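REVIEWER CHECKLIST
Item 1: Sequence provided? yes
Item 2: Single chain? yes
Item 3: Sequence as submitted:
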Amino acid sequence: QVQLVESGGGSVQAGGSLRLSCAVSGYTYNYMGWFRQAPGKEREGVAAIWTRGGEPYYTDSVKGRFTISQDNTKNTLYLQMNSLKPEDTDMYYCAAEPGWVQLPLQGRGYHYWGQGTQVTVSS
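Item 4: Structure as written out by the authors:
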């Protein structure tokens, strides 16, 4: 059974940190990523990885502040978010794909999604 369950969201002040977790099950996934979306806005790819190795992918606005990682022993994907800004406020979603993804920061390449976890950053 495919399940992606996010946790770790919350409310922080600007400059603070949060770590999001995504517990995954169901398949061996080749690509996993974090996306964010606010009501009325387009979904944005934040960070993604090819689970077999290589450099991760980041959108420009989070480079140097966010780090994506995986723990294969726990079947968990993480997003460490530091130096948070109010513009990082969004619902964050975990996504996973067992196949090949041409553009890992574009959500249309992923079949499986979590339910989302809210991140709110106050100024």
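Item 5: Key structural point noted by reviewer: The first strand starts at residue 3 and ends at 7.
Item 6: Recommendation: ____
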